[in-house]
């Protein structure tokens, strides 16, 4: 049994929280010393970081104590680098700029309904800000904040005092504009900037009243922030306009003119207006929360009075200092990320030409542009909102247009507020949604408001007090609050808005605001009169081509037999994409010796960490494939003409639907043929034709065409007129129209033969097509259905019968669900926002191609020119016309290995050679395997590199031993379930033998494996009887235990028995998607470990429901460090452009290890298009990550691990030179243990029992742990041999040494223009050696409340001796993951169920995130107050009660007292909440029972067990993906049914006596624990209430006594007694 921690006297002292400012400031001064030295000493830096956290926690708690002082000690000033402004005109948004800056944050506002300005509002805002420090981020010095800021009304008293001191006349509140300006650091530049500003203001007729240097305290600014601090001054101007809107507009014009004038100045990047208004002012900077008020002395001045304040704390993944990116912006404070930003920027730029409004009096040109790709997504959203606002829209209307809610299938809106639906329908065609997680706080000085994105992916709580103050914040508990004064508590749900009208003193909740806005115009009748929709047209019922013609078309356009048979035919017959497994092991298209369609050079981007992928399966109600066709009008003008568009329900058109579109005369369609002519030679032909195509498109649009159809349809194909790759044609026309201001005037549709897979559709739409008619793919479906082979198979029952129409419908259905999956991977809900968003990166196209058609996309390694692309296109084309044209399509072998086909990294010869080497333990055999790899065709980027040393060789004896090298090796996260028990255990034992690390994958682990074997005889152990080749001392535990989005098998004991904990954010085989285990692989054993039901498929949700943003990831890392402080926490990412920025955020989030996976890795089952078309090569991902971490001084904080297609020592050495410390092996480890690469893992039929759960197949498992040990030793010896050749003694010495690599001289057709300089670049070395980085202790959470609790000898005694004890403890929102560490101590000692004592811990206050996480049996936790998100996360037992304080001013039944995503991944215990919960209550719960008064959307999502009772209202999408457990919901007003997702569950009344008993006894327990009046009322009139309950029952529970009213009779009939059943 594990020993308990000893009481920690130091920790106990922290109990003495000080509210004494002296205490705080003395700690503070300690921390600010020696910052310069800190940046050179990361170890010391972390110590300071921990101390800073400790100080911060104490100070925040002191500030929150109702009877304590604010504790803020205030000090001193400073200067900076400014936002880089782009030159006019703005070019198409560049992904590189966008990727370099991402953020997420904590925000809030306070507003006085009486519009009475006070200093208290400011002081409270600063206090609240201080309590959200944990939501922000810091630079590498751990002191420079990523940003903090505050927006308020203008503090006239303060400024008038200043004015009078300056001898200036009093400032007129109605005539004075105030600019808060970041000016150049250099004094001369500053003066220049000021004179430009003054000149423009005077030209505009504004009189400059004075300049005020803003008083600041520079001593509190972090080291890095100080280096870039601007001069900060305010300018006061007198304006002549009378009307306040005109005043704001004039100030806006002036600002725009000044920004424009500054473009040519040397200091152009150093001028930034935080605000320039007569209503609002913004104080912000690169500061931490608590420093904001200390830095700006104004904020300490009691003359600073405002009736509202919006505050913001920023967490940026990038540590490069940029003061202007702090928030609030001029109108908005944004917590989240806009996923569609690149498309939004492009569309905004396209819109510039059409934007007009009389309010601008013809000055529209002077205020362009409306976006800046070099600014952040938040800054751009702010700009878009600002132009709408300044053009006369209200802030609420602007936000409704830009960030619409998911209004379709919305029962409340449909029934009660149809005008709101009309509003959204109208604007859907005018403005593409700015889509992504977003809590937006906004104000124009007259209204203050907040709204949430359509998915509700950020927390937002609000409350109102009797003294007429309204608060909104990311968290509750950020301010001291007398609960008896709180009269309302709520939260913003998905898409919801709240506004406070400061002038009328009214608060408008969601539908009130929207109804007011939507009623301003007759949107409904405009739509009815002008909007057309294309009715579905039947699919063709006969073929349109004969066999030969169809074949010729397929050949000409690049189809292979795999495309037809494995992709199109599967989609036509099954209505879904084919599934495949074991990753993508063919070369990138650029490295391939085969011709590829252009789409293969594109990889889909996906969300990871900074933004979440979303769940198209369970949360599809927020998604839509609808798209509008036709001209988009002037967004600033409202009128019926803007509604004159055509609506398509999806972008996939059949021939008839395209015809209907072409017949719409209002659209004036123009069809443009996309063939190029090579009769005058190939070179230059493609470019010429594309330019001419763009000109034709240009002319057509100028002539009024609103629909351009780019078509490669032709009855007669001609040998000398090949088709332009349609993606190139669409992209080029799209870009041309953008750059010529015509893009809003027309839509692009592709009628093409070159599109049959979901990826291809996504590419076309992503680069500008609104819809696609895939005529050849549909013809292929028809041909297939009518072929003799298919007819026979259907006749013989070998395949389900489908009609010719059904086959085409199935194909389209598969495309549509594939598109939803691709959108959701990037966290995008609406196809209309995906259109033109360019969410791809390019591997293998040269700059001229990118500039022509894919401008702004990342293409890091260069590649094909236009002529080379033309040649590749032609290589397909000629096949259709050659004399000896084959009678069937060629099989290129891109999917399955076949002799003569494409090279596959994992091929039969390679696996045979490897088996021989490891089984015979033969060095010779291993060297043959090595030779095979050395002689393979170029397969991956590293194959183009070789080592070049700067040293002479050394004897191998001098090189570090293999035993130390293998310690850096890990195996991939392959779940028990995906692979067999035998394989999983053999791999774990092998890795433990060599001191490496195996990875549990997502699915838990049998506790029997956590102790060393002592019973082995002749290689067999009764403990693990199915394995052979064992030794005493072997342990089958996986050193790395994985926490994935499904949380399967994640229990407290699992977590505390890990050496490392891995958070799987993405996986190489299918980044952006969740794991998938087919039902037939869920055996009883697997189901037991995963707390699920045998036979029920387990498809993990793509997002972690507790990670929607970077600060959420930081919270999960905190949770894991909390329960297991000794375990290092790793975060697994997949390579893509921008991963370096993401990784920086992860490092700042306190991860110990970052793992970069390549696209070619992964062993699990996924749709083919996910395997083939998402994720990038690890060489690029690793290089970017390593370099960015060094640039941000973060590299020493984290171990870098890499995996993806590793097979040999050379792979290890290459990765080392590119910066990796540790190396992961996936499929090759499976091959070494016996896999023969049959690639049918997902079918449960693995012939060698490696990836099957079938007993008879598992018995065939050939592997022993020794085989894998042999493999890794050979790999290590190979590493040693190369190191000795290079003259280096240890791996440490070559890590990050890209100078030891050089390009190989290899001549390949497609690599003429390949550029490897990105990989070979060097930014220097980390300050520590790799071994030093690896040997660090796990990072710490710093001092936490649990340490204090655990330092109490009575509590320790109760744990040690299993006694009962009761303690009361005060808690604050900064106390996070409370109880997690205590649970860890209990779980380590007693397991998940063994503790017989009872800890009664009573907390009072506002609990921070993840309260009561990972509870074990015996922990009885009571919280009097309220809690934030993730309450009861991962709890495995015990009891959790949350009740509000007594005598509240609000009704507990109506108040939200716990946040979002409670009980995520719970595996046991009971939870009683007297109040409402937020979104996703009990998501992925597998055994816990809970009673709550109400919930938000997605209640019981993906539950696999347990029981939830809701005594009040729930949101939408209840029980989505719920495959186990029961839910009882009280439905007093008969509104539940439309809110239930009925895909899986059935809804019934509670008829079964056992169900009634279960419900009643849970409510009885609930009333006893919480005193709920509602619960008591239900029990009091049980007979009346029972019929009002619905029971939600998934199929797996239908036959249980609780759900089946006939249970007894059925069981009796089966001849079984109830008892025995
Ligand atoms: S042998 Fe088994 S594990 Fe290997 S690829 Fe085939 S089915 Fe998958």
| Global shape | globular
Share of helix among residues?
25-40%
Strand order of the largest sheet: 42-43-44-45-46-47-48-49-51-50
Strand content: 15-25%
Measured between the Cα atoms of the first and last residue, the distance is: 37 Å
User: What is the number of beta strands?
Assistant: 51
Explain how this protein is built.
The protein has 1621 residues and is of the alpha/beta class. The chain is 34% helix and 16% strand. The strands form 12 sheets. The protein has a 10-stranded mixed sheet, with helices on both faces. Strands 31-30-40-39-37-36-33-32 form an 8-stranded parallel sheet. The chain binds iron/sulfur cluster (SF4). Residues 582, 1230, 1235-1241, 1246, 1248, 1250-1251 line the site of iron/sulfur cluster.
Which key features would you list for this structure?
eight-stranded parallel beta sheet; ten-stranded mixed beta sheet; 1621 residues; single chain; binds iron/sulfur cluster; 54 helices
Layout of SSEs?
Blueprint (H helix, E strand, L loop, with lengths): L8 H6 L6 H12 L2 H6 L1 H23 L30 H5 L3 E10 L6 H12 L17 E6 L2 H10 L10 E8 L3 H17 L3 E7 L9 H5 L3 E8 L5 H19 L9 E6 L2 E6 L3 H7 L12 E9 L15 E5 L4 H11 L12 H4 L9 H14 L4 H8 L8 H6 L1 H11 L9 E6 L3 E6 L8 E5 L3 E5 L12 E6 L5 E5 L4 E3 L1 H9 L4 H8 L1 E2 L13 H10 L4 H14 L4 E2 L21 E3 L22 E3 L16 E3 L6 H8 L6 E5 L11 H18 L4 E5 L14 H14 L7 E5 L6 H9 L2 E5 L1 H12 L1 H8 L8 H22 L5 H4 L5 E3 L1 E2 L1 H7 L9 E2 L1 H12 L30 H13 L2 H12 L10 E3 L14 H4 L3 E5 L7 H14 L2 E3 L40 E4 L8 H5 L3 E5 L11 E2 L6 H7 L7 E2 L10 H14 L4 E7 L4 H10 L4 E5 L8 E2 H6 L4 H14 L7 E5 ...
Parallel strand pairs: 17-21, 22-23, 23-24, 24-25, 27-28, 30-31, 30-40, 32-33, 33-36, 36-37, 37-39, 39-40, 42-43, 43-44, 44-45, 45-46, 46-47, 47-48, 48-49
Antiparallel strand pairs: 1-8, 1-13, 2-7, 2-8, 3-5, 3-6, 4-5, 9-10, 10-11, 11-15, 12-13, 12-14, 15-16, 18-38, 19-26, 20-21, 29-41, 34-35, 49-51, 50-51
Bound molecules: iron/sulfur cluster.
């Amino acid at each position: 049994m594990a020993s308990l921690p000893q009481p920690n006297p130091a920790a106990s002292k922290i109990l003495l929280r000080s509210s004494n400012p002296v205490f705080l400031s003395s700690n503070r001064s300690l921390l600010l010393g020696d910052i310069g030295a800190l940046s050179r000493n990361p170890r010391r830096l972390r110590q300071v970081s921990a101390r800073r956290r400790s100080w911060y926690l104490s100070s925040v708690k002191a500030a929150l104590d109702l009877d304590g002082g604010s504790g803020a000690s205030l000090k001193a000033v400073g200067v900076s680098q400014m936002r880089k402004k782009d030159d006019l005109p703005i070019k198409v948004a560049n992904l590189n700029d966008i990727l370099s800056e991402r953020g997420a944050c904590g925000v809030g506002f306070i507003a006085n309904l009486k519009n009475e300005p006070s200093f208290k509002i400011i002081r409270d805002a600063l206090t609240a800000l201080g309590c959200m420090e944990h939501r922000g981020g810091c630079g590498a010095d751990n002191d420079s904040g990523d940003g903090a800021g505050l927006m308020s009304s203008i503090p006239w008293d303060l400024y008038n005092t200043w004015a009078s001191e300056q001898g200036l006349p009093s400032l007129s509140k109605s005539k004075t504009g105030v600019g808060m300006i970041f000016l150049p650091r250099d004094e001369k530049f500053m003066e220049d900037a000021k004179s430009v500003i003054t000149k423009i203001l005077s030209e505009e007729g504004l009189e400059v009243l004075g300049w005020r240097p803003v008083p600041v305290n520079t001593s509190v600014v972090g080291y890095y922030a100080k280096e870039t601090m601007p001069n900060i001054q305010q300018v006061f101007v007198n304006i002549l306009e009378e009307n306040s809107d005109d005043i704001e507009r004039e100030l806006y014009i002036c600002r725009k003119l000044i920004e424009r004038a500054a473009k040519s100045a040397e200091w152009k990047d150093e001028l930034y207006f935080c605000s320039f208004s007569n209503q609002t002012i913004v104080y912000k900077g690169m500061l931490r929360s608590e420093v904001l008020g200390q830095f700006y002395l104004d904020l300490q001045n009691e003359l600073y009075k405002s009736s509202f304040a919006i505050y913001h704390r920023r967490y940026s993944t990038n540590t490069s200092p940029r003061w202007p990116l702090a928030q609030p912006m001029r109108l908005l404070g944004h917590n989240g990320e806009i996923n569609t930003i690149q498309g939004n920027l492009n569309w905004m730029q396209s819109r510039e030409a059409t934007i007009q409004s009389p309010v601008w009096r013809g000055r529209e040109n002077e205020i362009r542009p409306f976006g800046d790709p070099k600014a952040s997504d938040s800054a751009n959203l702010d700009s878009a909102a600002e132009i709408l606002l300044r053009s006369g829209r209200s802030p609420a209307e602007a936000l409704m247009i830009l960030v619409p809610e998911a209004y379709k299938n919305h029962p409340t809106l449909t029934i009660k507020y149809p005008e709101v639906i009309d509003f959204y329908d109208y604007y859907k065609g005018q403005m593409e949604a700015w889509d992504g997680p977003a809590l937006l706080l906004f104000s124009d000085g007259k209204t203050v408001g907040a709204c949430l994105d359509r998915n509700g992916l950020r927390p937002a709580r609000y409350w109102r007090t009797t003294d007429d103050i309204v608060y909104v914040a990311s968290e509750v508990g950020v301010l001291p609050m007398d609960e008896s004064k709180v009269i309302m508590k709520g939260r913003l749900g998905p898409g919801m808005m709240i506004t406070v009208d400061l002038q009328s003193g009214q608060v408008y909740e969601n539908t009130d605001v929207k109804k007011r806005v939507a009623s301003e115009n007759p949107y409904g009748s405009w739509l009815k009169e002008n909007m057309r929709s294309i009715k579905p047209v039947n699919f063709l019922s006969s073929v349109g081509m004969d066999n030969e013609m169809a074949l010729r078309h397929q050949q000409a356009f690049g189809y292979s037999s795999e495309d037809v048979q494995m992709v199109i035919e599967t989609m036509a017959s099954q209505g879904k994409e084919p599934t495949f497994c074991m990753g993508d092991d063919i070369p990138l298209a650029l490295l391939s010796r085969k011709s590829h369609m252009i789409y293969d050079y594109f990889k889909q981007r996906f969300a990871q960490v900074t933004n979440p992928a979303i769940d198209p399966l369970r949360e599809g109600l927020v998604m839509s494939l609808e798209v509008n066709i036709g001209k988009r009008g002037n967004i600033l003008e409202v009128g019926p003409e803007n509604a004159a568009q055509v609506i398509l329900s999806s972008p996939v058109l059949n021939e008839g639907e395209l015809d209907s579109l072409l017949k719409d005369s209002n659209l004036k369609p123009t069809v443009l043929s996309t063939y190029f002519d090579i009769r005058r030679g190939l070179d230059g032909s493609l470019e010429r034709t594309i330019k001419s195509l763009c000109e034709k498109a240009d002319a057509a649009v100028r002539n009024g065409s609103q629909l351009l159809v780019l078509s490669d349809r032709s009855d007669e194909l001609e040998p000398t007129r090949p088709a332009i790759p349609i993606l190139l044609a669409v992209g080029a026309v799209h870009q041309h129209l953008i750059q010529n201001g015509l893009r809003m005037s027309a839509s692009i549709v592709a009628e093409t033969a070159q599109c049959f897979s979901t990826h291809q559709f996504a590419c076309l739409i992503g680069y500008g097509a609104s819809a696609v008619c895939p005529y050849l793919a549909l013809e292929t479906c028809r041909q297939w259905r009518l072929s003799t082979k298919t007819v026979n198979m259907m006749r013989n029952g070998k395949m389900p019968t489908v009609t010719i129409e059904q086959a085409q419908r199935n194909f389209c259905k598969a495309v549509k669900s594939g598109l939803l999956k691709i959108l959701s991977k990037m966290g995008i809900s609406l196809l209309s926002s995906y259109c033109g968003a360019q969410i791809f990166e390019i591997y293998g196209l040269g700059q001229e191609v990118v500039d022509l058609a894919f401008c702004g996309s990342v293409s890091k390694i260069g590649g094909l020119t236009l002529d080379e692309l033309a040649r590749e296109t032609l290589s397909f084309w000629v096949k259709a016309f050659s004399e000896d044209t084959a009678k069937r399509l060629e099989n290129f072998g891109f999917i399955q290995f076949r002799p003569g086909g494409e090279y596959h990294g994992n091929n039969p010869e390679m696996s045979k050679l490897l088996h021989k080497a490891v089984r015979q333990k033969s060095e010779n055999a291993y060297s043959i395997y090595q030779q095979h790899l050395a002689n393979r065709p170029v397969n991956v980027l590293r194959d183009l590199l070789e080592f070049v040393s700067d040293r002479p060789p050394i004897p191998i004896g001098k090189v570090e031993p293999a035993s130390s090298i293998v310690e850096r090796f890990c195996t991939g996260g392959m779940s028990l379930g995906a692979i067999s028990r035998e394989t999983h255990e053999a791999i774990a034992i092998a890795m433990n033998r060599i001191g490496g690390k195996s990875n549990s994958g997502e699915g838990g682990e049998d506790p029997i494996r956590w102790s060393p074997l002592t019973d082995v005889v002749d290689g067999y152990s009764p403990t693990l009887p199915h394995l052979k080749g064992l030794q005493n001392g072997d342990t089958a535990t996986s050193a790395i235990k994985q926490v994935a989005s499904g949380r399967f098998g994640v229990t407290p004991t699992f977590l505390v028995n890990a050496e490392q904990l891995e958070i799987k954010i993405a996986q190489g085989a299918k980044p952006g998607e969740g794991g998938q285990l087919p039902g037939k692989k869920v055996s009883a054993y697997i189901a037991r470990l995963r707390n699920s039901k045998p036979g029920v498929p387990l498809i993990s949700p793509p997002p972690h429901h507790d990670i929607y943003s970077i600060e959420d990831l930081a919270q999960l890392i905190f949770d894991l460090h909390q329960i297991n402080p000794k375990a290092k926490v790793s975060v697994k990412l997949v390579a893509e452009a921008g991963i370096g920025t993401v990784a920086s955020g992860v490092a700042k989030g306190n991860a110990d290890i970052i793992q970069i996976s390549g696209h070619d890795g992964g062993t699990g089952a996924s749709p083919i298009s996910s395997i083939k078309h998402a994720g990038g090569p690890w060489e690029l991902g690793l290089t970017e990550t390593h370099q960015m971490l060094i640039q941000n001084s973060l590299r020493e904080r984290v171990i870098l691990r890499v995996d993806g297609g590793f097979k040999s020592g050379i792979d290890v050495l290459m990765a080392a030179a590119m910066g990796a410390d540790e190396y992961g092996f996936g499929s090759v480890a499976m091959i070494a243990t016996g896999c023969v690469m049959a690639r049918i893992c997902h079918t449960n039929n693995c012939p060698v029992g490696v990836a099957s759960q079938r007993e008879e197949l598992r018995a065939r498992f050939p592997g022993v742990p020794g085989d894998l040990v042999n493999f890794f030793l050979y790999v290590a010896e190979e590493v040693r041999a190369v190191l000795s050749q290079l003259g280096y003694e240890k791996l440490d010495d070559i890590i990050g040494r890209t100078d030891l690599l050089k390009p190989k001289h290899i001549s390949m057709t497609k690599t003429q223009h390949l550029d490897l300089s990105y990989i070979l670049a060097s930014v220097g070395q980390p300050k520590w050696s790799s071994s030093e980085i690896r040997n660090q202790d796990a990072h710490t959470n710093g001092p936490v409340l649990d340490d204090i609790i655990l330092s109490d000898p009575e509590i320790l005694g109760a744990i040690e001796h299993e006694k009962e004890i009761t303690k009361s403890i005060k808690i604050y929102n900064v106390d996070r993951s409370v109880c997690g560490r205590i649970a860890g101590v209990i779980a380590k000692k007693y397991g998940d169920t063994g503790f017989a004592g009872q800890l009664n811990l009573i907390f009072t206050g506002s609990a921070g995130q993840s309260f009561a996480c990972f509870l074990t049996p015996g922990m009885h936790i009571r919280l009097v107050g309220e809690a934030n998100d993730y309450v009861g996360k991962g709890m495995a037992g015990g009891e959790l009660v949350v009740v509000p304080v007594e005598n509240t001013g609000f009704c507990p039944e109506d108040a939200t007292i716990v946040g979002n995503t409670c009980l995520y991944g719970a595996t046991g215990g009971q939870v009683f909440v007297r109040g409402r919960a937020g979104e996703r209550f009990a998501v992925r719960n597998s055994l816990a029972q809970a009673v709550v008064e109400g919930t938000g959307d997605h209640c019981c999502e993906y539950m696999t067990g347990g029981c939830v009772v809701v005594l009040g209202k729930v949101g939408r999408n209840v029980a989505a993906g719920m495959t186990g457990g029961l839910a009882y919901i009280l439905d007093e007003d008969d509104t539940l049914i439309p809110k239930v997702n009925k895909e899986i569950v059935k809804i019934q009344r509670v008829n079964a006596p056992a169900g009634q008993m279960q419900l009643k006894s849970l409510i009885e327990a609930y009333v006893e624990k919480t005193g709920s009046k509602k619960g008591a009322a239900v029990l009091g009139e049980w007979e009346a209430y029972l019929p009002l309950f619905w029971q939600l029952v998934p199929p797996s529970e239908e036959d249980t006594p609780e759900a089946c009213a006939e249970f007894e009779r059925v069981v009796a009939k089966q001849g079984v007694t109830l008892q025995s059943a």
